[in-house]
């Protein structure tokens, strides 16, 4: 089953369960998982699958309810680069970087992606990305080093965003993401997570920057596409 096919279905319905994800933090980059939830609130019947929005691009009262993101004009090491100097560009870059660096269990690949995403002048050590992958593997019960076990994978798919501290050249992009973890044995686990991506324009493109902001955004975690998600300020992203 391809990643797109797998994400085409909503997560299993059931009670929202908060799970502690120890060590799943790319500290130097400021990429953090505020909370991971499993399942869905049975009282909420509307969900959005990754790559889509559960609501139209504009609501009846004129408020923004979805944002069409764009692809980078070029690729570097398989990572999209060359985004427009705009809010759409910043969110699009954040979605791309999150999808790439948090969708691999290969430490070397994580470093490769981080080297592309990182702002070399105000960024982080891309080698820290390898530590994040190691933490994810350990959390999944996989060997922390060595070849990725056959069938094991992690896929992170952003489906909604919010902004903090928005200026022309910098902003913090919050992403609500589906996270699917497969150990290669048993059923894949479908979760939802809140990620923080501090972005800055370096004169040519949007890049990840170092951030000392430790704001706790766990209260924003919710089921994507639900009424509660919209009430909490989440705006869907569409491709």
From TrEMBL:
Q: Does the keyword Ligase apply?
A: no
- Annotated DUF8175 domain ranges read 74-222
Compositionally biased tracts (Low complexity): 47-63
Q: Which organism is it from?
A: Stackebrandtia nassauensis (strain DSM 44728 / CIP 108903 / NRRL B-16338 / NBRC 102104 / LLR-40K-21)
Q: Which Pfam families does the record cross-reference, listed alphabetically?
A: DUF8175
Q: Name the segments for region: Disordered.
A: 41-65
Q: Which domain of life is it from?
A: Bacteria
Q: Which keywords, in A-to-Z order, does the entry hold?
A: Membrane, Transmembrane, Transmembrane helix
Has keyword Transmembrane helix? yes
This chain belongs to the protein called DUF8175 domain-containing protein
- Membrane-spanning ranges: 16-37
């Amino acid at each position: 089953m391809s990643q797109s096919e797998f994400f085409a279905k909503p997560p299993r319905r059931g009670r929202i369960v908060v799970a502690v994800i120890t060590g799943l933090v790319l500290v130097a980059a400021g990429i953090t998982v505020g909370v991971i939830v499993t399942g869905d609130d049975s009282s909420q019947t509307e969900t959005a699958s990754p790559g889509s929005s559960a609501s139209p691009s504009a609501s009846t009262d004129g408020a923004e309810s979805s944002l069409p993101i764009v692809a980078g004009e070029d690729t570097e090491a398989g990572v999209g680069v060359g985004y427009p100097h705009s809010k759409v560009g910043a969110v699009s870059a954040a979605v791309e970087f999150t999808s790439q660096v948090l969708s691999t269990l290969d430490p070397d690949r994580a470093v490769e992606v981080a080297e592309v995403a990182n702002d070399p002048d105000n960024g982080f050590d891309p080698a820290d990305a390898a530590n994040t992958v190691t933490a994810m593997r350990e959390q999944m019960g996989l060997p922390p080093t060595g070849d990725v076990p056959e069938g094991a994978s992690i896929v992170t798919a952003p489906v909604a965003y919010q902004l903090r501290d928005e200026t022309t050249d910098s902003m913090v992009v919050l992403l609500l993401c589906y996270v699917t973890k497969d150990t290669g044995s048993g059923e894949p686990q479908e979760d939802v997570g809140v990620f923080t991506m501090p972005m800055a324009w370096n004169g040519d493109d949007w890049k990840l920057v170092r951030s000392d902001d430790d704001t706790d955004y766990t209260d924003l975690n919710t089921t994507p596409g639900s009424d509660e998600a919209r009430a909490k300020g989440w705006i869907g992203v569409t491709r």
